[in-house]
Amino acid sequence: MGLYLCIFDENEELEGVDVGAYSDFGFFRNAITTQLEGGHSGARYPTLMLHSDCDGEWSPNECQKLEAEIEAMAAALKELPSVEFNAQWQRKLADSLGLQPANMYESFIDVDG
């Protein structure tokens, strides 16, 4: 089963990303916890990390917090060394697109690369 994150305005989808399987999102969240939160999930990024990944939604106010958290995570991940892609589909896609992550930020890809 795949995980699709999207933004709606009323009933219209504005943007979305297919992040792969739930296990791929779990791998990402585990990396955030271990590498950026000192092993304590939600310590630095509670809006994302403590939110259920199961049919949930964020309020507009939470989305502002989430945006700030994601920007901070992205900056921090760019300072860390790359890791091996988590799933076989990611490795195959990376090979086909010639992707070679230079840092941990680039080590997390969606189904489009």
Task: Sum up the structure in keywords.
alpha+beta, single chain, 113 residues, 4 helices
Give your account of this protein's structure.
With 113 residues, the chain is of the alpha+beta class. The protein has one domain. The protein is built from four helices and two strands; from the N terminus they run E-E-H-H-H-H. It starts with a strand and ends in a 16-residue tail after the last helix.
Helix-strand pattern: EEHHHH
Query: What is the percentage of strand-forming residues?
Result: 15-25%
Q: SS-based structural class?
A: alpha+beta
Distance between the termini: 18 Å
Helix content: 40-55%
In short:
The protein has 113 residues and is an alpha+beta fold.
Which helices and strands appear, and what pairs or packs with what?
Elements: E1 2-9, E2 12-21, H1 22-36, H2 46-49, H3 60-77, H4 88-97
Antiparallel strand pairs: 1-2
